[in-house]
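Researcher: Re-running this chain for the archive, since the previous output was lost when a drive failed. Same request as before.
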Amino acid sequence: PILLDHLLLTINRIIQESRLKEEAELAGYYRNLSRTDELTGMYNFRHLISLLKSEVTRHLRYNRTMSLAMIDIDDFKNYNDTKGHEEGNELLMRLAHVFRRNTRNCDILARYGGEEFVIIFPETALEETVVVAERICRAVAATLEVSVTIGLAGLPRHTADYNELIRMADKAMYWGKQHGKNRIVVYEDSMSTCR
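Model: Regenerated structure tokens:
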């Protein structure tokens, strides 16, 4: 009877440990799912905003620079209409791969929505970010059938507010779209009337 009790306790402990491991894996899966875009594997909008708030606070506290890129695929609607939504989704996944290959591990990549993406460049001046944006544009042109327009804004150069940083990068990107697409534009105060 003692041997049987010991055996039952051991089996029960193994079952409980297995169940706890499964629950932990499932919790991790759902946590990841709540933070990432399912299609691209990049962070989603909600998690981007959370990370951006933290990054802005940290950079202001330590008096550091940072940059933000707003990226839009040129004529994506036409691409989707011509090639179909499956091809459009494939393009988004391939574009995410291009971004990963051309940025640092510390850079924060997110799908902002639709065909728009944001990259946060911690501890990076705008001049350095322009170089990365140029590299991204060349890589997109070399590997994909589309081009991108990139708007850039920096902290503290342009603003100390995370919402303003996004708005300014978006305005720069929109200005680039209005002036020929397939370009990189750094925000300027004269763009405040765009959109």
